[in-house]
Amino acid sequence: MAELGFTLSDAISRYVHDGASIALEGFTHLIPFAAGHEIIRQRIRDLHLIRMTPDIVYDQMIGMGCARKLTFSWGGNPGVGSLHRLRDAVEHAWPRPVEINEHSHAGMAAAFTAGASRLPFGVLRGYLGTDLPAHNPNVRRIACPFTGQSVTAVPAINPDVTILHAQRADRAGNVSITGILGAAREAAFAAKTVLVTVEELVDALPPALNAIVIPHWIVAAVVPCLGGAYPSYAHGYYERDNAFYQAWDSISRDRERFIHWMEEHVLGTADHRQFLASLQTSAPA
Amino acid sequence: MITCTRNEWMTVTAARQLRNDSVCFVGIGLPSAACNLARLTHAPDIVLIYESGTVGTRPNVLPLSIGDGELAETATCVVSLPEVFSYYLQAGRVDIGFLGAAQIDRFGNLNSTVIGPYENPAVRLPGAGGAPEIALHAREIFVMLRANPRSFVERLDFCTSAGYLSGHGERARLGMAGGGPRRVITDFGLLEPDTESQELRLVALFDGVGVEEARAAVGWPLAVANSLRKIPPPSEPELAALRALHERTEAAHARPIHVPS
Fold first, then answer.
1. Could you check whether the bond before residue A137 is cis, i.e. omega within 30 degrees of 0?
2. ipTM of predicted complex
3. pLDDT, tens digit, for every residue of A185-199?
4. Looking at domain A8-103+158-281, does it have CATH number 3.40.1080.10?
5. Contacting residues of A for B28, CB less than 8 Å apart
6. Which of A114, A225, A228, B13 is the most buried (most CB within 10 A)?
7. H or E element: which one contains B81?
8. Residue ranges of the domains in chain A?
9. CB contact under 8 A, A105 and B158
10. How many domains does chain B divide into?
11. Cβ–Cβ under 8 Å, residues B152 and B217
12. Do B177 and A74 touch (CB under 8 A)?
């Protein structure tokens, strides 16, 4: 049974340690921002960050020096442009060098699926004719043992910790997600430890037979956290703040402005409730 | 004569390439606008799939990200990301993949990864996302990007998504399932691959645009078809639908979000 008694601060300090490999998943939807900010507040270092789309949450973590390595498949600010802190790390090693393990979405989906199944590698028809395999030894061609067909293999991804944000969990710790899933379920089942923040704890989940439930014995801890995916979104609770995503382009472009913003809104706040309140009192741009 | 921007003309031209019975895997940005314009005009039954797993989506406003809630709410169904890439795309159940890129070469190979060397890039671009496998598996690929000598290049800095590789059948010899880039829609007209060499050549120009402008915008010696088609400007209904879509989109993206706390 999942532990329900932790604060987010307790849960992060208990499960996320220096040097760990962690996946904060959620494909545009349900990105666990509150957990990412808590990792920044606790100044956890040398992390191997894993996410298909690093998004603003990893831009912030990379810019604050939390990461030694990044496994990803698309590193932009969706619909806006660059992730400037990720770019600064790759182009200028600021604030520290970050090792890159770069895939395509299909490759990472196969790697998470293999990880969830505890297989050593995932198989796909992918990467053909591209330059990615020449730069990433984690993309290799193998022959099908039955037909001899050439297919692509990628090593399984098994994060030490996967962190998700979800709409609901019940009081046993069963987790329900509605809307865009991405590879959240695969990332959870692939992990050694699963931590979930939720908009609300409920007595009973809605009786939807195919609702995505990550069952309680897969989950180490569930922490209620209202607005925990903001500025991404929680379908049925609040929308994606597209204006914030657009504003992030100018906030993050300059090192000093970025640090100042992070000090004011993340390091300068005690928890996610205060973070959200701090944005109410100062314009994000 | 209606006045419109080149961007609008390009988007309308791209939308016209899509058929009502197409199943189309949509990239974000310019392709997303073109695909939804097609749906709102001549192709109301087109099936649009975004890599976020939203299948048959009919958004009222353009999504900013590939996974806005609008896409899920208006979809026929929402599937997981491993499912959309494996059962839909890899299994050959997508007719058209519609992509953008930072760079394209004469064989329709695309770069969205880096400018400069990979290990020490001058510009780190977002990277692959779904593009390499869309380019590999969709029956046909349409590409949409604005042309200048930095985007239409003699040599890519990095090949993120394969077109015809070096042409002359190399793509088929490598066993790539999909048909490759059949059309490149840009801000002066259309390029299509030559049937033998598979090199992109100019086949159509916006009405009133000369071949010299196209040659100047392309960073390789541009091959030109014997007879060039003229692409008429957007009609009033096309332009009205596109502008209304963009207006709705801008208003929606600026709307304040209420976050529970």
1. no
2. 0.96
3. 999 999 999 999 999
4. yes
5. 78-79
6. A228
7. helix B81-83
8. 8-103+158-281, 116-155
9. no
10. 1
11. yes
12. no
